[in-house]
Amino acid sequence: MGRSMSRDEAIMEGLQARLAERIAKGDNCGPFIAAIADGDGNIVAEAANSVVASGQSHCHAEVNAIALAERKLGTWDLSGRGLTLYASSEPCMMCLGAILWCGIERVAYGTPTPSVERITGFDEGIKPAWREEFAKRGIEVVGPLLEDVGEKVLEDYVRRGGITYQGRRH
Questions:
Q1: What residues have CB less than 8 Å from 83, skipping those under 6 apart?
Q2: Which residues of 34-65 are buried (b: 16+ CB within 10 A; e: fewer)?
Q3: I need a surface site. Which of 37, 124, 128, 135 has the fewest CB within 10 A?
Q4: Edge-to-edge, what's the strand order for the sheet holding 84-89?
């Protein structure tokens, strides 16, 4: 008899499933997706990475989900609402900054950085002690969640020839 799934795991499982569907349809979504949920687990906003589609390097899934939540809620300050940002993979350096400044109080993530980098080759950036820095600011971090599920989704993206972008100067 297996253990029951937590709310965080259930939301993450749904997020990874929707990401897998997008990948199967040929969506060059990074391959990342994020959602913001309220304290009852209701999704307020969900967005995939749209860097390739938009031609804009800042359009990561977390940033897109934050922007959508802010538009829906009519505010640039998401604090005091008990919101959790769910990210299919551990947020990169840029997304950590966006999360820090938007007022999100909780972050739950799937695939950890070492797996993302190993599978996709994407450089997640320098993130020294980010969990501790978030804790100092009252932002709870949960993860990695369902790591094996997320790794399979990333592997499928790479196997299908999805674009892994990285702005670099050599």
A1: 36, 37, 38, 39, 44, 69, 103, 104, 105, 106
A2: bbbbeeeeeebbbbbbbbbeeeeeebbbbbbb
A3: 128
A4: 43-48, 33-37, 84-89, 106-111, 140-142
Q: Reply yes or no on whether the pLDDT at 170 is more than 50.
A: no
Decide the pairing of beta strands 140-142 and 33-37. Answer: unpaired
Q: Tell me if 41 sits within 8 A of 11, measured CB to CB.
A: yes
153: amino acid identity, one letter? V
pLDDT tens digits along 98-148: 999 999 999 999 999 999 999 998 888 899 999 999 999 999 999 999 999
DSSP codes of every residue in 129-167: THHHHHHHTT-EEE---SHHHHHHHHHHHHHTT------
What's the token pair of residue 167? 């702005």
